[in-house]
Amino acid sequence: MWWAILLSTVVGYAIGSVQFGLLVGRITRGVDIRDYGSGATGATNVIRTSGAKAGVLVIILDIAKGIAPVYIGIALGHAAGIDHDERAWAAAAGAFAAVCGHVWPVWAGFRGGKAVASGFGAALAMNPLAAVAMIPVAAAIVATARMMSLMSVTMAPMTALFFVILAALGISPWAYAAYSIGAAALIVFRHRANIGRLIAGTEPRIGRGGEKRADASGG
């Protein structure tokens, strides 16, 4: 069991460290998007700096980046000959490692994004119906407030609560609930500056806040 979990963690982190937002920013604008807007490499900052089409592309790729480690973990569990619950822990370990890789990417100087899309991708692979059920709520928040950050800090804990309820009912493994709690905590932590601006009423809405950062070193 342990080698499957360990290998899943390593592979998940390597996959999570691939920064599609950084790559798309360089291709579309020839810039390091970490020098603009929020400084993150996720889709929200790509939308602000490179436009909606580029942002949608990054969302899709980052969701896929969260999906892949779950299935890899399950496959490794099968290879190790472990049961369903133990395979779920391998999948959860790989998924959480991917989220951490997105936040602290080894391939990009440990300066990454906020893991919302990749975190959702993992949840989608773990329980498609539960993850899809969250989409209308997330869409309503975005449509009403026009703030991706508000949606992120609201939906991550809600998804974690949903997965805990499913685990308590015996519908979903506790490993997936543990993943969702850890991912939600990390996502909220990464949005701490956004939370401060939301409270102060200064958080930029979608399409705004893509100016070059004062602390940017160039590029």
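(the above was protein one; protein two follows)
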Amino acid sequence: MQDLTLEFACRQIAELFRAHAEWLFVPSEGSPQSLRRDELEVAVAHGKLVFSCWTENGNRWWHILRWHWTGQLLELETSRRLGRERALMQLVPRASAKHMTVMIRAARELRCARLGQLAVAVEAHTKIERLSLSRGTKPGQPGRYAQILLLQRRERIAVTGPIVPSHPAVVDAFLSSSLLWLRRTSNRRQPPYVEQFWLIVTPELLKPLLYRVALLRSSLRDIIRIFTVDDELTSLTEERCPDKQELWKQKLARFPPVAAATNSELSEAITAEAPEARSRLPVHES
């Protein structure tokens, strides 16, 4: 067994089990299942390395013939019933919810920083004053929007935009969250004040966002600039913000013509069998 003693191998595997709170058990036959570390056990019995765990069929145990830890999963070559049954199974450590939250936050903060770099390149003599994420749906969870504050000599620029894939249906939530953040930021800051408000979205959110921005009061619309960005966050493109009169003048797409109702072949065949039995709506005289 890789030139390791049974006792050393037992300690190594036991330490792996203790290091992760939950594991995904993938047997050679049957469906994978999630197991807690206290449901996994490894021991030396009768001169053999024995692995046992709780399965859909109750508690089961196997002799471990060989094992290998790849850094991401534990592979066990096992046997049962005096060697008549052999199986290769895998145990994959599952990340905890806390660990997943940390990983998601790190990935979103990285995209937030990238968005800040693109925004700084738009205006000369501008630097990033603050980078942050919006509030998550639950305490401790990272938000979906970047909140960036740029500093110029005589003004500040508030920049925000989604950093996760977003459907056009979320544009209302995005805009309302952005306006609330702008209000808090404007109220808390000393001079120089926030004089510009940039909204950075993907092309899918552009059209519904333009229609909503056009409905804002003129003093707020005047400080808003809208940009589109690609999914890879490589470049920004400034978009023109039409006013509501211009948007209302645009022609709406016509509805497609409705085809006339026709009887199917089956209904025609049934009617032909007994045309006199066809039901008719009663006629009421006024």
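Reviewer note on protein two: The first strand starts at residue 22 and ends at 26.
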